[in-house]
Amino acid sequence: MIDKLTDRQQYLVMQSMTLMDSLYDGAMGLLIDEERSDRHNTRSSAHYALGLLIRSGPGDVERACSLLNRVMDLQFDCPEEIYHGTFRVSPQAALPPAGNYDWKKFAPGFAFFLSETTEKVGKRLSSILSREINSGLPGVDGQKIRQYLQSAIDEVLPPVWKSYDPNWREFIASTFAVILEQFAGVLPQVLVQRMEESMRKSVSASIDRRLSDAIPMNSNIELMHIFIVHYYGHRFGNAEWIRHADREAAAFLQGFEEFGSIAEFNTTTYYGVDLTVLGMWRKYGHTAAFKETGRTLERGMWENIALFYNTVLENLSGPFSRAYEMEMTGHSSIGVFLYLALGAGYEHLAAPNCETSHDPLIVLSAGELPPELFPQFTSFGESRRVEKQFRELCERDKPGANRNLCTASAWIEERRMIGAMSGSRNTNGQMHPATVHWRDADGARYYLRLIRREQGKSWNSHLRGMTFEAAVDKDLLTVDVRLDTEVPIEVLFEITGPELSQAKVSPELWALPGLVCRVTAAAPEPSILCDEQENKLEIIYLHRPEDGVQNMSFTLRMDPVS
């Protein structure tokens, strides 16, 4: 097939295959994880199988068949468990507990209530133990007691994300759909039959998850869910699956049309997944209506990307409803789509990263950038203020009260972008409510983001008891933070970029390379940490729970871009 691809498509496939060939572990028959060399990755292994089938060099088809069988060996086949039909993320991952959780008998949203109840029981238990037998447990505080309780629960009830990933159903089922559609004729019939049986398990379990709302689906997973139910519904002649997919597609479109946005709004990582799967809707959909819905959503996605994109910084401005990094090419496939659209001279946007194994899937599915949007991706135009509303999904909040109306705003200039989020109540640390991107006079790139973390822990976690309200204007970023937590919380401005050791930072003035920021803060005195090895600077404001409810506010006035 590779000789039928365009030069751009061939470039992406071969670049991706060079990386994946180097990660293949013949002894395990799987791909080593791109980010963790001590484990393998079943999703990436499915992507590699697709790439091998596209390349079809000596031994490639045989290796692809072996990979597909190995991935299916790691599928959960336990119809009564909540993780039925998904796949182990890695053979090294611990197995979830079984036999203790009759989850289908619970009402929608029970996962939210289970989490809330566990937290309340933990607080009550620690209070009783502290009062009654504290003298017998020296050095054990309330937080440690709650951690013991949570660990005990996790050994009985399978903790999502810790012991299994429900999203592996949708990811791997989407890849299998493309493989079956494009390559069923070159695969052994017994393998095709096994893949189809595997997909019956995955899709039926995905529908169970969706109808129960036990584990809410973020936008990218929802789009994949709709696609796989539609695709396999038609492949297997299952009328109920087809009706389910049609209902879900209509509901997703209706939600999008309210503001022309989705719940996972302005997110570099997940926009790449969204564009990939919407390409599948268009290319592999079985009805004209389904394909047209895919086109409408895909076009809207590109319009939103163009709205926040800066051709000089080659990045999306914040704020981000969900993000891992501030750099678009770091944990995202958007650069791959832009290279496919814009061609020679833009290869650097598609440089290998932890998402590169997706590229064969993108090559076979990607649509076209709407021609009228090309100027917004090739020339800057004018400085602008942009604003867009969307309804977020708070996946760990009560169903019916977890879709808050948010506003994402940004001030975008050639060499600087400032982003601000208001309205969000998301507990997810991937929500970035205040951001700045800029370049210094020498062209070096810098990023500032406001994040939070439990003291001594990672920012990428769910935490309750805090809200952020940010606003933006030219050269101005303001943020109000409210904190009411039971654990110490660090509210921090994280700055990344080269030579930050030369920065001069005081509570009132941040003199950074390429950016001078005058700060007015109603907040505790900050501590300042500089990690030269990581090119990272942190300005940290500590909230202590013993201080009660605390409000912090920050006004950042930036010198005009010279």
Explain this structure:
This protein has 14 helices and 19 strands. The longest helix is centred in the middle third of the chain and has 24 residues, at 189-212. It has 562 residues and is of the alpha+beta class.
Major beta-sheet overview:
8 strands, antiparallel
Multimerization state: single chain
Let me know the number of strands: 19
Number of helices: 14
- Average pLDDT confidence is 94
Which percent range fits the helix content? 25-40%
Please list the strands of the largest sheet in the order they lie side by side.
6-7-8-9-10-13-18-17
Question: Strand-residue fraction?
Answer: 15-25%
Mass-distribution shape: globular
Task: Please state the CA-atom Rg, rounded to the nearest Å.
Answer: 24 Å
The end-to-end distance, rounded to whole angstroms, is: 51 Å
The helix/strand class is: alpha+beta
Low-confidence stretches: none
Give me a quick take on this structure.
With 562 residues, this protein is an alpha+beta fold.
